[in-house]
Amino acid sequence: xxxxxxxxxxxxPPTVDAPEHSLADSASLQLPDSWKYRRLTVxxxxxxxxxxxxxxxxxxxxxxxxxxxxxxxxxxxGGGGQLDPTANNRANTALYSTFAVVGFFAGTFTNKLGIRTxxxxxxxxxxxxxxxYLSYNHTANLGFTTFAGALLGxxxxxxxxxxxxxxxxxxxxxxxxxxxxxxxMIFNMGAVIGxxxxxxxxxxxxxxHPFPTHTAYPSRSPSARTCMSRRTVPSMTEPxxxx
Length: 243
Known about the structure:
2 domains, Growth Hormone, Chain: A, two-stranded antiparallel sheet, 2% strand
């Protein structure tokens, strides 16, 4: 039997918090007076407001596109793009060791910090991780890459916890599958683009400086040495290139 309080609740106009109205026209919603809820019109097409689920989905997707996506691209090159895989092996060992521990408590930390803070802090670890490999090419600092891997494990636990909370709470119930598929499509494009860049560079090097079939390298130019240094380490019977 319907009570008077339920009738009064049904008579209220839809609010922005109602998931079934989250994609509806903003004219029928009671939106707060903030820039996050203002809709822009581009070429006659009205765009969703900033705080709407589609826009928030794109933001989270491109965060993962630039952070975990590039991480996948870097590790997809084998050994983190290094001739010696020792640095990559130690960094990933530290990474997944801390990831396993922090991931268990990541929900508590995300609830305390908030989704925005957890997502922002999570992206920092990926930047430090990639920077450690760039530093390793110049300084061979193995400790920095190992530390960066351990830090990334902490950050990745928070990032993926925040991402899961967003993907499960923001989309309407009937659209969750579509939103999740969009996210994984954009996220994995990071690894696709990263590996395509690496493959294009490798092909360019091979065309400009073909790999020698004899024991002496035909070119000692800086560009040739750069291309050769990114290839497989020569066997012990072949002479190493001395700068």
